[in-house]
Amino acid sequence: MSSNLHPMLNVAIKAARAAGAIINRAALDVESVRISQKQVNDFVTEVDQAAEQAIIETLLTAYPDHGILAEESGGTHGARNADLVWIIDPLDGTTNFIHGFPVYCVSIALSVRGKIEQAVVYDPTRNDLFTATRGRGAYMNERRIRVSKRTQLKDCLLSTGFPFRPGDNFKCYLQIMSDVMHRTAGLRRPGAAALDLAYVAAGFTDGFFETGLSPWDVAAGSLLVTEAGGLIGNFTGEADFIDQRECMAANPRIYGQLVPLLGKYSKFASAGDKAAVRQAAREGIQEEGVQVEGEGGAGAGEAAD
User: What predicted TM-score, i.e. pTM, was given to this entire model?
Assistant: First the structure.
């Protein structure tokens, strides 16, 4: 730990590394225990819980009067109604982890009266440590990081996350992908939102967007992005987004180009924008139906010949 860092950030780093060690040890055994999906899920749940417990014990040993908001245990630990609350995701990218796909991380943020002041995102596979303290910049492995300098969307690489829960509007997401993909250099789905945001902060990607996210998915990453010179908010560009389950981040120039592109898909979009999205979806379905019918007719004609 560095003496130059904020004391609370140092404690968060210690907690993240402790969780990362647990995850790395478990990752060595993932293949051997993958006998059935149920066993893998149970095993990963144990890893989530063990990593989270290590984080909570480290934080509360140093700061017993702080509150805790954690993915696995919610707010059952720490002081109730505290002004200082740690927001924790012990293993972001669980699906990747159980398949041995090495893209996952530990995310820890400190909220002080509703404002994120400290952030750690730790990638245990690569031993990459992303940190930020409000007003002091963002760092990767103690090297200062900045968002990318690209100014045109067509040159940009964006990351995102696909909907996977029952009730998610997948057709709407396909529309978003259609709008974004042909306007950019590429679209990626790594599978760990906290790490996606860290990569925006480091300039590895130029932007990120996703819906259905919880505070522990984005809290730490949000401070990394802003301290690296980027912008983060909901799809309409509003900065108060952490509890709104939609997130968009990018360097300032690209952020401004994403707002009109993604804003109409926001749950906060105007009634007119929402109606236009629904109409476009209906037209896409009708066009697809006509295309399929035409293909079927040609196939039948060829068979008759």
Answer: 0.86
